[in-house]
Amino acid sequence: MKGIMIQGTSSDVGKSMICTALCRILADEGRKVAPFKSQNMSNNSYVTVLGEEIGRAQGVQAEAAGIIATVDMNPILLKPESSMKSQVILFGKKTLVLDGMDYRQRFYENGKAAIAQALANLEKTFTHVVIEGAGSPAEVNLNDRDLVNMAVAEYADVPVILVADIERGGVFASIIGTLALVPNPERVKGLLINKFRGDIRLFEDGIRFLEEYTGLPVFGVIPYLPDHRIEQEDSLGVRELVRQTRENAVDVAVLKHPYLSNFTDLEPLFMEQDVALRWIEKVEEIGQPDILVIPGTKSTIADLRYWKQQGLAEKLQSLQHECWIVGLCGGYQMMGELLRDPSGFDGTAVDIEEGLGLIAGMETVFMEEKLVARRSGKVRFSGQEAAVEGYEIHAGRTAESSLPLIHFENGTEGYLSGKILGTHLHGFFAHAECRNAFLAPIRKSRNLPEPEAAVEVDRYGLWAEHVKAHIDWPAVRQLIEVFK
Question: Which family does it belong to (predicted)?
Fold first, then answer.
C-alpha cells in the first residue's frame, strides 16, 4: 500500500485530526484509503458493526473516508484501568490486563505480529493507508520496543510528516528536539504546524528558519478551527469542552472523575450554542445547575468512593427534584443502591459497595466478559418520542428497569423517572432528535427560545477543506504516491 504516517512532537498536537482530514481528502480523490493506528491508548473507544472495540479516532477516520471501521484499523487498544494497569484489547477483544513493565516484556512480539497481520489484511482491500503515531516518537526510554511510531513507519514503509502544535509555544524547540532524538530521522520528509492563531505573515521567518535548520519543507501552517464538530479522542481535549455559565444558557455541570472515560458523550451537548458546560472537581462546585451529568468511568467503584467521600450522595438527595441528574454508563451504575465486584473486574475487588441511592432496588454486578454492542431504539420526553442510537461497552450488568428509558425491538434499557435519567448507551445525546427532545422542556423552563433547526453540515468535508486549503497538498500527494 501507498501511504503516509503522521507523527507529532507530543500528545494532542492534532495527529488524529490531520489523519482524519487526509483520509477524507484521499477518499474524495477516489483513493481506496484506510486509517491505521497500530496501538492506541484511550478509554474513548469505538464499537464496530461486529461489536468489537477500536480507538475512537480510527472509527472517526473511517467515517471520514466513507468506509466501515474494522479491527484491522487499530489492532491493539490499551484501556487504562488505573495509573499502573491497562486492559489489552487485541483485534477488538479484551485479552489481558497488564502493567507497563509486563506489557513491554511479555507483549512485544505478539504486538509486532498483530501489526503485521492487520496491515496485510488492510492491503487486501485498500490501496492507501493513513497511519497515526502516538505521543512523541522521541521517547528514548521506549523506542527499543516501539510498536506505534517510527517502527511502524518502517513496517509499512511509508514516509513521515511531523506535526507540531504552535498554540502551546516552543514549536521550534519541539521540532528540532524531536528530530534530534527520533530513530531513523531520514524517514521524516516534512513538517506541519498546527493550531496557528493570528496573522500568518508573522510566522514567515519561522518557516524559513525551520526549513533552513532542518532541511525539511514546511508543508503548511494550519489555522486553529474551534468549531469543527469532530470528536476529540485524547483526554487532553477535555479542557476544551468548557463554555462558561451565563444567564441565557442551560447550565450543565459534569463530574470530572479521576478515571473519566468516554467524555465524547458530552460533545453534542457542548455543541449546542445555548448550553454552557462546566467540569466539577469538588462537590461544593456543583451549585444549582439545570443538568448534573455523572459521566462514564474506567473504574466505577473507585470513582464512586471518591465522590461519596466528598458527600455527593447527600448533595444529590437535595438536588434530585431541582435539576436533571443524568448518569451515563458507569455514572448510571453509581446511581443505584448496590454494586458488587467480588472478583475485581472493575479494578477494585469488593463484595458490596453502596451506590448513590438515587435508583431504588438497582444493583450492578461486574463480570469478566464485557457487553459490547451497537443499539438503536426510541425514547420519550414530555410526550415527545425520539430516535436514539449508540453503543454499549460495560462489564457491569444491571437488570432491566420497570421504568426504562429506551425501548428496543428486543427489550429495554436504562432508567427514567422524574428528573433522574440513566443509561449505558454511549452516544445518547449524539442523535439530534433525542437531544432536542430532552432539552426542550429545560429550555422552556428557562424561557430560552427554541433553537433554529440545525442545518446538516458535512463536518468531515469542511475540516478536510480547511486543511487542504492551508497545506501544499500537491506536494503531500506527490510524497504519498511516489515514495516507493
Answer: Belongs to the CobB/CobQ family. CobQ subfamily.
